[in-house]
Amino acid sequence: MSLISNPEFSLINGQAHHSKTQVDVVNPATGEHLAQVSEADNQAADKALQAAAETFEKLASTTAHARSQVLRKWYELVIEHRQVLAEIVTKEQGKPLKEALAEADYAAGFIEWYSEEAKRAYGQVIPSHSQSHELTTIRQGVGVVLGITPWNFPLAMITRKVAPAYAAGCSFILKPSEKTPLAAIALAKLAIQAGMEVGAFQVLVTNDSKGLVAHLTESPQVRKLTFTGSTQVGSALLKQCADTVKKTSMELGGNAPFIVFDSADVEQAVSGLMAAKFRNAGQTCVAANRVFVAKGIAAELLNTLTQQVSTLTLGNGLEQGVDIGPLISLEAKQKAQQLLEDALAKGASIAYQGDKQSGQFMAPVVITDVNSTMRLFHEEIFAPIVSIIDFESEDEVVRMANSVPEGLAAYFYSNDGNQIRRVSHALEYGMVGINEGIISNPVAPFGGVKFSGLGREGAQEGLLEYQEIKYLCQKFS
C-alpha cells in the first residue's frame, strides 16, 4: 500500500478531494519540496460534515466490540508501517528518525489502548430512591468531532484524539497542520484499510485554517471540538464554540518548570533534563522551559549539563547519529533568537553555545542568571535553549514555578521523601514528573490546568471526553 504519493489529497468520505489550489509541503531540514496536497475549502468542508453526520448515525448501531476490532487492526497496521510513517514525519517535520520511530510507537499505543477501552465504556446502576424505580446511566458518543492538531507530533496528536472518538462511536473531521499533512493522510488511509467507515475519519488540509475552522464551528452538527495548540488560538476557538454550546477539550500552551533540589542525584537530573528539553529540538508543549537549580549544586549541575549538551549532533534527521533536527520554520528560529537576545540584554550569561547554524537549524544554548524580567521566563521557548535560574529555598522555587498562568507539566528532582510529597501537591500543574523527564504515556491522563487547557487526553479520561452520560429513570407499575 502506498501511503504517500505526489500530489496528495484531502480525504473526504474516503475519496481524494481534487481542488485548484494546493498546500506545499517542504522538508525543513533541506528545503526539498515533498508534495502538494489538495486544499479543502468551505464547500469541501460541508461535504465532509454531511458524511460525518451520516456516519455518526450509522455508528450508533455498531457495537463497542466491533469498533474495538477496527481499532486493533488499525494499531497493527500502524506498527507494520512504523518505518514508513516515521520517515514521513522526519521529512515533513524534521525530528531525528529515532525520535520519529518512538513517536510512531507512541501513536500506536493510543490506538491499542482505546481498542481495549472501547469495551469498557460502562454505565452504572444507581441505588433507587423507591421500590418502583430503576435508575441507570449509559454513555453514548457525543456526535461529530472536529479535531485540530499541531505539527510537532503529527502522528501522536492525531491518534490520541481519533482513537478515543471512534471508540466512543463518534465520527471525526481532522484539520492537521498545513506543515505536516502527509502523516495525517497516511494515518487516515491505514484507518480505512483497517475497516473504519470512510466518513468516520476525514482529513481537510488548508492554508486558511482560521477561515475553514470558523466555518465548521458555526455548524451545530459539530458537537465537539478538540484542539492542541497555543493558548491564544484555543481561547479564540472557545469563543467560536460558545454560540453552539459545543463540548470542547483544549491542550494548550505550557511553561514547564524543571526543579533540581540539593538532595537530587545530579547525574540523574541532567539526564532527565536532556530528555525533557532537547526532544524534538525543544519543540514540545511539555519541554522544560525554566530550569531552577538549588544554589548549592548549581556549579556541579552546570558543568555536567554543558558536557552533555556539547555532545549533541545537529543535522538532517534521516542521517545516522543526529540528535537535533531543524526548527519548523525560519520564523520559529527568529523568535527563539529574539528571546535569547532579550535575555542577554537583561543580564543573562551564556554558559554554552554551539556553532552558529544556517537555515532552520539552531545550535543548543545554555544560559544562566535568568530572571523573571526576561521574556523567556514567561513565554514558551520552543527551541533548544536551556535557561537556568538559581534558588535558595523550597518555598521560593515553588512560588516562582507557579508564578505563570500556564499549568501543563512540571518536573522536579529530589531524594527527600517529605519534600517530594509537599512539592508534588504544591505545584499548580496538571502533570508532574518526579525524578523523571519523560512523562507522557497513553495509559495516563495528559492535560493541564489554568491557561493550559480543559479536559484530558489518554487514559480512561480521554474516552470520557467523547461521551455524553445519559440518565435513565424507569418506573414499574
UniProtKB/TrEMBL annotation:
Q: What positions does the domain Aldehyde dehydrogenase occupy?
A: 19-471
- Major enzyme class: oxidoreductase
Q: Give the top-rank taxon of the lineage listed in the UniProt record for this protein.
A: Bacteria
Q: What is its EC number?
A: 1.2.1.-
Which CDD domains does this entry report, sorted A to Z? ALDH_F5_SSADH_GabD
Q: Where is the active site?
A: 251
The answer to whether the entry has keyword Methyltransferase is no
A Pfam family recorded for this sequence: Aldedh
Keywords of the record, alphabetical order, are: Oxidoreductase
Record's keyword annotation contains Coiled coil? no
Coiled-coil zones: none
* GO terms for biological process, alphabetical: gamma-aminobutyric acid catabolic process
Task: Quote one Gene Ontology molecular function term.
Answer: succinate-semialdehyde dehydrogenase (NAD+) activity
Q: Which SUPFAM superfamilies match?
A: ALDH-like (SSF53720)
Q: Which InterPro entries does this UniProt record tie to the protein? A: Ald_DH/histidinol_DH (IPR016161), Ald_DH_C (IPR016163), Ald_DH_CS_CYS (IPR016160), Ald_DH_CS_GLU (IPR029510), Ald_DH_N (IPR016162), Aldehyde_DH_dom (IPR015590), Aldehyde_DH_Superfamily (IPR050740)
PANTHER family in the cross-refs: SUCCINATE-SEMIALDEHYDE DEHYDROGENASE, MITOCHONDRIAL
Q: Which family does it belong to?
A: Belongs to the aldehyde dehydrogenase family.
Put simply, this protein is called NAD-dependent succinate-semialdehyde dehydrogenase
